[in-house]
Design goal:
By secondary structure, the chain is an alpha+beta fold. The chain has helices spanning 4-14, 23-41, 61-67, 102-115, 120-128, 131-134, 144-151, and strands at residues 52-53, 56-57, 72-78, 84-90. Strand 1 (52-53) and strand 2 (56-57) form a beta hairpin.
Amino acid sequence: MASISDVAAYICMKYPHKSELSKTRLTKLVYLADWKAAQQIGRQITDIEWYFHNFGPYVEDVYDSVRNDSRFEIVNTENYYGDRKLEIHIKDDIRPPHGLDKTEIDIIDSVVKETSNMYWNSFIQHVYSTDPIENSNRYQPLDLVLHAARARGGALLD
């Protein structure tokens, strides 16, 4: 499994709209990568134990990982409405992370490509339309691998 900070670093490097990489969007992008990996390869990319918080998947693991990793800087700024927003940036002199394999990179690339042109409302709708969110109760853990297996008719991938 890849480290959370390596996944976050790769997303920060590849995401074309750097000012959109808020704490929340980055967390949900990591969720989407884990969800797509569960569907395609039968496991998550990270070891995050996802949780259905209020309206969607959320954990502090992503933010805690980047906050404690010197490759990142966190910029306190405002969103379009004047509300506080934490943007996550990878420092310019950072080389690509080495903890991701080709399959993981391909999955993350597809998530970035699929979501990078979505405005916030479309992006959130996309996240909320995933099977683990649509078919789970709030304030419960999300077993992405189990949801992916159920969607395949109960078959777990090796």
